[in-house]
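Thread title: Can someone regenerate the structure for this chain?

I was given the following input by a collaborator and told the matching structure tokens would be attached. They weren't. Posting the sequence so someone can regenerate them.
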Amino acid sequence: MDKDNSEKITIETVVNAPVKKTWEYWTKPDHIKKWNTASDDWHTTICQNDLKVGGKFISRMEAKNGSIGFDFGGIYDEVKLHESIKYTLGDGRKVEIKFNPKGDETEILESFDAEKSNPIEHQRSGWQAILNNFKKYVEKNNIS
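Best answer:
Regenerated them for you:
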């Protein structure tokens, strides 16, 4: 991939939960498997997460009807507890997630290098749908 010409895409949301709880739901495999989908006809069947610099993560995402699936994974470049996560995907693209505490809420900003094979808006809407699903999951299950 030619990273010099890669466009960055940024998505965001505000989650009605404190940063500590938001971080836990973002990083624990048992939680990830429950929110890591862009639509109800997909699910995450496997999730492993070694959350440390040099650690690997992988999520197996599949259509519920079994027609298609793919692995989404990479290696962590930087982990700052309750603040930010940076990683490199298997195809070399970079991703950064920032967790900004706003009282009892958490703003999440997620930026990633666009890939070349799908339109920018398609990528933005897909990643935003997953982030929206995360927000919904946290707010439904957040018991402080």
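The domain at 7-37+77-141 is CATH 3.30.530.20 (Alpha-D-Glucose-1,6-Bisphosphate; Chain A, domain 4).
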